[in-house]
Amino acid sequence: MVSQGLRDKKGRPVVVITGMGIVSPLGTGKADNWKRLTAGESGIRSITRFSTEGLRTTIAGAVDHVYEDGMVSSELSEKLARLAGTEAIEESGISKGNFPGPFFLAFPPLEIEWSQRYALAAASGANEKIEYADLVRVANKPEFSSFYEASKYGVVPERLAEHFGTKGSPISLTTACASGATAIQLGVEAIQRGECEAALAIGADGSITAESVVRFSLLSALSTNNATPQGASRPFSKNRDGFVLAEGAGAVVLESYDHAVARGAKILAVVEGCGEKADNFHRTRSSPDGKPVISCMRRALDDAGVTADDVDYINAHGTSTPENDKMEYLGVSTVFGERLKDIPISSNKSMIGHTLTAAGAIEAVVSALTILNQRIPPTINYQVPDPAIPLDVVPNVARDAKVKRIISNSFGFGGQNTCLVITGEPA
Amino acid sequence: MSDRHDVWITGVGLVSALGEGLDQHWDKLMAGGTPPYDDKTFAPHITFPVGPIEYDAQIPKRDQRQMEAWQRIGVYAAGLALTDAGIAKNAEILDKTDMIVAAGGGERDVAVDTAILTDLRGQEKRDAFVNERLMSDLRPTLFLAQLPNLLAGNISLVHGVVGSSRTFMGEEASGADALNIAHARIAAGQSDICLVGGAYNGTRWDLVLLFSLGAPLLEAPFKPVWDRGPKGALALAAMGAFVVLESREHAEKRGAKPIAKLSQVLSNRNPRKPGDTAETLLSEWKSVEKSVKRDSAVVISGASGAEPATSEERKVLSEIGLPVRATTTYIGNGMEAQFLANIAIGCQAVRKGTLFPAAGSGDTGTAPAGGISQAVVTSVGHWRGEGLALIERVG
């Protein structure tokens, strides 16, 4: 059977968003998040979930309104994914528990955590030096069985697939800070291939622990502006000093345009194009010539069948690290040239912080909200512009604007970059 | 996207306890005998370490220092596959070569963990103590050896594969998913060429601990996967396996010869109620059955040794009635890398036209007299995930 439905410029089924969900340190749900994002509020606070004594960074965008006492990272991340996924599916009007397509989940890597290691060490009764063999000896006690599923990568996607009733093997993935965007790209591609009419893409990350703070600190990636948490994430500012770890989730229901129209669904946005390009310069640093991210943006525009002239707003990766923001400026100035001074570019991370695995999905949701509301969330904490990277960052205050097409950037550690081109409902 | 492209396997790289490269693997498999397991390092648990590998041949020393063993194994195996496909160091092709890697987490610093746990006793401020020790004792670069996506990152750095880079997680199923998505993208014209694979190092205390929490690990004496009793058991292994997938058109244009054609890949899940695994596997078989030539096809099974999944797979394979060999008996459980390792061995079975000796009660039949033209490769995860692929001789 040949489908006669709406095709894009490359002859592929048009892929639309019909449901969206979001959780961030600013709150749960689109309404709350949008209100706070456009009010320029910060979700960054001093960390209270665990002792920060001895840590260099003591602030984060933790989702304290979602966290429950004793949760480990996998449990919190799963809860975030459920909240965002449920909001998205409810909005789409697709029946609960029987999602008619595959599931792509951007999710943080998991490990046994210190609280669990303490419990095992205590149970081992070892008197001298504690070795892993001592922990292994007591590991099969029934009281530790929950540790197993909490640390296996396949468990959360499996539970969520069962919960949402998605089809096929659930795919959990990581492309570092680009993961959320990659999840959406995988869903878009599956619909374009004609394998399915709908796909669920979620990016979720609730993995702030003392050890995760330590790890990023040791790479000198985090802001140490502990005295003023709400002012710590300062993308594109001259005094930016690193990103702020955060937690959250973004979810989208993707559908072919025809499928959405046939069931009378409201179309929220179109994912017009996706681009990706890997970088082989360094494990944590982007190529200083910006070539991979330039290529990534161009591939996304080309995939969408549009040019740089057709973009009205850039949803920046904008992490607030000295290096990323400089490199992103180099990238956008090369891709957009002279027009860049007329294109607003703002960073949601100035308010939310960097939700790592979830960021690409959260920012895709915010991009769609930006188009739906014709209003651009600001880059807050922009008090000291960096003259080396002159950009219209929509400083500090949200702005009403005609926004038809957005490019959303996500660039990750390990050289993994993904860009999405998002537009409003097809005319 | 109704344009379908044939998907060829044009390069294979494999490292396991049996050695490196398909020929070494095949020679050792054909020789039969006792599998190369280790029952001492993690006694009483049995593991399958990789043999000595000359990493310098594929990975500069300064890069090796930035990686842990699971990444070195993977980067090395990826290099073997790129070399086998004839695209190693070919910047023009590598610039557009896509990549999907199946990966778990990297190793912890066991010495730091155990020193902290030991010194923690009697500390009043437990959390503060751990914070300070982690800040001073953890190597900054260890994080990069722990992130799953940094296997792909290292492959980009060392081998220059930069078309795109995606990492799938989730034990055995992620390997089947990676092959499935790469195959679907090439068949649909979304990609011309893709490096797909995974690596795992199960010979680590932190993973022995993880599995001890919930899955029985094999203890001496060694038994084949099919015969590990009603509770089943896994034997954690180190391995790396990569293949280069390519559209037939792309391969022919550059004069590359196919090792085999990857005709179909399926990857599914179920909640593993009794009988679920058998049902899913059987339905996957039904969708390839019409393409299978019964007189020249064999099954290369990815049975894990976990129960009841392994018994359910054996029942289905016995109904199908093709000759069966389970590779996990010989190379152990390599999780994310397992299915790709099995695909690699399936390629060699098709290329050589013969089968290695049976080991255990589920290995049945003998190689067809007229040679082997097809291999049905299964992946039944120890906890979740049922995958199946059909690979075929070309010409």
Mean pLDDT of chain A: 96
Main β sheet profile of chain B: 11 strands, mixed
Q: Over all CA atoms, what is the radius of gyration of chain B? A: 21 Å
Radius of gyration of chain A: 21 Å
Q: Find the structural class of chain B using helix and strand composition.
A: alpha/beta
CATH homologous superfamily grouping of the largest domain in chain A: Thiolase/Chalcone synthase
Under the CATH scheme, the architecture of the largest domain in chain A is 3-Layer(aba) Sandwich
Total number of distinct structural domains of chain A: 2
Query: Structural class of the secondary structure composition of chain A?
Result: alpha/beta
Chain oligomer state = heterodimer
Identify the CATH class of the largest domain in chain A.
Answer: Alpha Beta
How many distinct helices of chain B?
A: 15
The CATH architecture assignment of chain B turns out to be: 3-Layer(aba) Sandwich
CATH top level assignment of chain B: Alpha Beta
What distance separates the N and C termini of chain A?
26 Å
Question: What is the strand and helix layout of this fold?
Answer:
The complex is a heterodimer of chains A (427) and B (395).
Chain A lengths: L14 E10 L2 E2 L1 H9 L6 E2 L12 E2 L12 H20 L10 E4 L7 H11 L7 H7 L6 H6 L4 H10 L6 E4 L4 H14 L5 E8 L4 H9 L29 E9 H6 L6 E10 L12 H14 L8 E3 L6 H15 L8 E2 L2 H4 L6 H15 L1 E2 L22 E2 L4 E8 L3 E8 L4
Parallel strand pairs in A: 5-6, 5-7, 10-11, 10-14
Antiparallel strand pairs in A: 1-2, 1-8, 1-9, 3-4, 7-8, 9-15, 12-13, 14-15
Helix pairs in contact in A: 2-6, 3-4, 7-13, 10-11
Chain B lengths: L6 E10 L2 E2 H11 L29 H4 L4 H16 L6 H4 L3 E6 L6 H11 L5 H12 L4 H5 L2 H11 L6 E4 L1 H17 L5 E9 L3 H8 L25 E10 H6 L6 E9 L7 H14 L7 E5 L7 H12 L3 E3 L1 H4 L6 H15 L21 E7 L5 E7 L3
Parallel strand pairs in B: 3-4, 3-5, 8-9, 8-10
Antiparallel strand pairs in B: 1-2, 1-6, 1-7, 5-6, 7-11, 10-11
Helix pairs in contact in B: 1-15, 3-8, 12-13
